[in-house]
């Protein structure tokens, strides 16, 4: 022991230290992912997976056990997929919500995401910057994804960068106004003519507040934290014709009269009419809970909130309706997709695409198996996803209508309005974070200076966008 | 042991006779090291832990603050990250909020535990019982404590407003107003952590010789006079070290603001520097800028830690 030496010990420690520091100092101007596999797709990339090749893929976003029906369907679908592809082992990882942004960022940095991983459509730049997305352009064609030509090109464009495709859509939504028809009726409003402008929203919210405020019911509610305030504000500014960023995607474009008008209305509803609750700092889940428990008349949201407020908070489908986004100029559309890990092998990417195609992009299978959804007590008839066009859209509408369990008429105003859609802005989550502050300012400070809040947010967004160029 | 030392030194400098003085020093040091080899061996685990989880991340952070990652490619960007965070419109807001939190935390979180310790020290009965009561909130998981205060602070149905309404006093928005959010966070944070500080102060107070108070009594000193002339001077070292530790800890405030106000708070009134670091990393996905902002904080905390290290040395 005594001869080993302290010196040897110190030498080992020094070497380790220098090694670590060296590792930290290295990496200049080279791909950090350490990828070998899918950096270049082979010439056979466009061919479907060879059934003789044994492949194991990990996939996230398996429904958790608390969502029993969805989980059962997932497991059944894996079993059915395996009949077609017995050579593929699907290792599912459950989580709800499917993406926690902070955890997702950390996973991307560590490269520990699954081989096929769920992302929001707003995540593309982040995943690309982390060097984690495989270019699947060569893998995706009408053989590997038979309905490819019927997928709305506008939706696919959101998943492209520099002409290269990085993801496959699994769901999409268009923002609108969710309202409680029962509350409208109780307040003496016509539930079949929901508000379509911000002036009408304010007026109806005040009516609800005046008539039902004593029962603890508020006219309107909005988010202001957790990026949800920013997301809602962008949806609301889209509705009145403003954009979040200019066409170059490099400058903020929200500091204008339209956005100020929306914010002023929200401010007046909160402080003058008091038709919004006194609890600001609300985020995802809060407004849904309030709607589901019959505590608010209206909020801005997407159709997929409806099953949540019904299943989790026991509202009735017939009590919930949707109108187009107030203003009706453009509606924000967003959604989710799956991307494929850059370090996955070509066979893993092929297997991942085959699974996503089976589960999310094949009519009458997976998520589009409406008779099964109906039998399992899941809602059928919501106006989303809507990424199919042409014959696929017609077929989807037909099968959906045949099994509909939600009152489709409650969404008629929303669907009939045909509001043109606009994708979320580039670097959306960064912009939403900044705009949370604007919403929070308007809803927590009676003397809020809307112009100043927007100017400060504009400066910060410009700085963040410049940093992303 | 000594027998093996001399030849080893001699052979390591073959052809050159060792200088008497230097050789003696080396021999002495070598012996000292060998005597303590076992202790050094035990240290390896701790050193490796610090190396992996503290020192390496610090080196990495320093390097990252001059780098940027795009499309999976890391490149050097000089001082661009530092410039970016310095010109962030909320840079000074975050520092102001951090200073405000630290100041409130010192006024409330430093004075209150010390006062409670003095009261506990003076008690003749139920001291152990009360000590447990004071320490109890520390044993509560932070998230549970935060949830409790979130309920207390709720403007609609919270306990505090309920009490105020009962007393016909004006209610407050607590965490939901930019004027009261920060102080509300500090009160909750102090409640959750004051137990540990109180026990440390109490231990220091119990080390003060009783004769000093008796002498003060004989000199006719009153309560405040005894605190000022006996208690505080006798606990000066503990107080100053706790003060510095508290400054270093409170300037890194993240958990309470994140859990109580979502981080930013109304109109960014609770956005601290560490929350801003988190935001750059996990909301903006800009780890270089997050590291650069961390460097600013490192410099400020380094100064306070230096003072602490000096005080500790004096205490030894």
TrEMBL record, chain A:
Q: Record's Pfam families?
A: SBP_bac_1 (PF01547)
Name recorded for this polypeptide: Carbohydrate ABC transporter substrate-binding protein, CUT1 family
Traced from the root, the source organism's taxonomic lineage reads: Bacteria, Bacillati, Actinomycetota, Actinomycetes, Kitasatosporales
Q: Which UniProt keywords apply?
A: Signal
Q: Which residues form the signal peptide?
A: 1-23
Spell out the InterPro entries in the cross-references: Bact_solute-bd_prot1, SBP
Provide the residue span(s) of the region labelled Disordered: 29-57
Highest taxon, organism lineage: Bacteria
From TrEMBL, chain B:
Q: Where is this region: Disordered?
A: 1-25
Q: According to its record, what are the GO cellular component terms? A: plasma membrane
At the top level, the lineage of the source is Bacteria
> Which InterPro entries does the UniProt entry name for this protein?
ABC_transporter_permease (IPR051393), MetI-like (IPR000515), MetI-like_sf (IPR035906)
List keywords of the entry alphabetically.
Cell membrane, Membrane, Transmembrane, Transmembrane helix, Transport
Polar residues bias: start-end ranges: 1-13
Q: Which residues cross the membrane?
A: 39-56, 101-120, 132-153, 181-204, 237-259, 287-309
Q: Which Gene3D superfamilies match?
A: MetI-like
Query: Taking the first listed entry, what is the main subcellular location of this protein, grouped into a coarse class?
Result: membrane
Q: Where in the cell is it found?
A: Cell membrane
Task: Look up the record and give one Gene Ontology term from the biological process aspect.
Answer: transmembrane transport
Q: Which protein family is it in?
A: Belongs to the binding-protein-dependent transport system permease family.
Would I find Amino-acid biosynthesis among this entry's keywords?
A: no
The answer to keyword Cell membrane applying to this record is yes
Please give, as recorded in its UniProt entry, the membrane topology of this protein. Answer: Multi-pass membrane protein
Q: Which PROSITE patterns match?
A: ABC_TM1
Q: Which SUPFAM superfamilies match?
A: MetI-like
Listed Low complexity bias regions? 14-25
> What PANTHER family is this protein classified in?
ABC TRANSPORTER PERMEASE PROTEIN, DIACETYLCHITOBIOSE UPTAKE SYSTEM PERMEASE PROTEIN NGCF
Segments forming domain ABC transmembrane type-1: 95-308
User: Which protein are we looking at?
Assistant: Carbohydrate ABC transporter membrane protein 1, CUT1 family
């Amino acid at each position: 022991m005594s001869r080993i030496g302290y010196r040897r010990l110190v030498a080992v420690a020094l070497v380790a230290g220098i090694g670590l520091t060296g590792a930290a100092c290295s990496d200049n101007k080279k791909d950090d992912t350490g990828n070998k596999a899918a950096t270049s797709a082979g010439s056979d990339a466009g061919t479907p997976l060879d059934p003789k090749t044994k492949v194991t893929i990990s996939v996230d976003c398996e429904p958790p056990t608390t969502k029993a029906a969805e989980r059962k369907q997932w497991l059944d679908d894996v079993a059915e997929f395996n009949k077609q592809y017995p050579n593929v082992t699907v290792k599912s990882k459950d989580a709800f919500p499917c993406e926690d942004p902070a955890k997702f960022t950390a996973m991307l940095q560590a490269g520990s995401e699954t081989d096929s991983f769920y992302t929001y459509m707003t995540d593309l730049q982040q995943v690309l910057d982390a060097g984690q997305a495989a270019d699947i352009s060569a893998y995706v064609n009408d053989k590997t994804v038979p309905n490819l030509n019927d997928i709305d090109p506008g939706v696919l464009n959101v998943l492209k960068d520099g002409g290269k495709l990085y993801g496959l859509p699994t769901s999409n939504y268009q923002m609108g106004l969710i309202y409680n028809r029962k509350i409208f009726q109780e307040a003496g409003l016509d539930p079949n003519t929901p508000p379509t402008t911000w002036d009408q929203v304010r007026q109806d919210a005040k009516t609800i507040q005046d008539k039902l405020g004593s029962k603890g019911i508020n006219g309107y509610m909005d988010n202001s934290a957790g990026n949800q305030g920013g997301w809602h504000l962008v949806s609301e500014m889209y509705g009145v014709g403003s954009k979040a960023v200019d066409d170059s995607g490099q400058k903020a474009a929200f500091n204008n009269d339209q956005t100020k008008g929306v914010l002023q209305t929200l401010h007046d509803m909160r402080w003058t009419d008091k038709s919004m609750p006194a609890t600001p700092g609300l985020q995802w889940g809060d407004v849904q809970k309030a709607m589901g428990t019959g505590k608010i008349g209206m909020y801005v949201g997407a159709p997929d909130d409806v099953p949540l407020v019904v299943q989790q908070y026991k509202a009735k489908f017939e009590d919930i309706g949707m109108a187009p986004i107030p203003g009706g100029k453009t509606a924000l559309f967003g959604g989710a997709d799956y991307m494929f890990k850059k370090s996955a092998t070509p066979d893993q990417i092929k297997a991942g695409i085959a699974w996503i195609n089976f589960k999310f992009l094949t009519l009458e299978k997976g998520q589009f198996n409406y008779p099964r959804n109906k039998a399992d007590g899941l809602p059928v008839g919501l106006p989303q996803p809507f990424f199919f066009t042409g014959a696929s859209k017609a077929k989807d509408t037909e099968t959906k209508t045949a099994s509909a369990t939600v009152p489709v008429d409650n969404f008629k105003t929303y669907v009939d309005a045909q509001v043109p859609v606009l994708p979320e802005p580039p670097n959306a989550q960064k912009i939403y974070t900044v705009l949370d502050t604007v919403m929070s300012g308007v809803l927590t400070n009676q003397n809020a200076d809307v112009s100043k809040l927007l100017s400060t947010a504009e400066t910060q967004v410009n700085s963040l966008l410049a940093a992303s160029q | 042991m000594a027998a093996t030392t001399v030849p080893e030194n001699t052979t390591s400098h073959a052809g050159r006779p060792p200088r008497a003085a230097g050789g003696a020093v080396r021999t002495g040091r070598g012996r000292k090291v060998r005597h303590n080899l076992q202790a050094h061996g035990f240290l390896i685990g701790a050193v490796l832990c610090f190396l992996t989880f503290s020192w390496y991340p610090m080196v990495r952070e320093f390097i990252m603050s001059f780098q940027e990652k795009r499309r999976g490619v890391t490149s050097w960007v000089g001082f661009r990250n530092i410039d970016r965070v310095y010109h962030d419109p909320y840079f000074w807001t975050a520092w102001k909020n951090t200073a405000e939190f630290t100041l409130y935390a010192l006024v409330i979180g430093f004075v209150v535990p010390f006062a409670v310790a003095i009261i506990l020290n003076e008690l003749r009965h139920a001291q152990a019982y009360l000590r447990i009561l004071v320490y109890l909130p520390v044993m509560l998981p932070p998230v549970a404590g935060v949830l409790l205060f979130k309920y207390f602070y709720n403007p609609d149905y919270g306990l505090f407003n309920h009490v105020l309404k009962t007393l016909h006093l004006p209610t407050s928005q607590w965490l939901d107003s930019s004027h009261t959010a920060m102080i509300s966070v500090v009160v909750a944070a102090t409640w959750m952590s004051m137990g540990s500080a109180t026990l440390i102060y109490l231990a220091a107070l119990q080390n003060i010789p009783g004769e000093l108070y008796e002498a003060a009594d004989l000199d006719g000193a009153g309560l405040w006079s005894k605190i000022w002339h006996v208690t505080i001077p006798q606990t000066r070292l503990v107080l100053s070290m706790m003060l510095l530790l508290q400054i270093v800890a409170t300037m890194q405030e993240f958990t309470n603001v994140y859990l109580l106000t979502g981080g930013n708070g109304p109109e960014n009134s609770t956005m601290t520097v560490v929350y801003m670091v988190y935001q750059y990393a996990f909301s903006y996905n800009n780890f270089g800028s997050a590291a650069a902002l961390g460097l600013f904080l490192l410099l400020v905390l380094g100064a306070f830690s230096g003072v602490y290290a000096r005080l500790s040395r004096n205490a030894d």
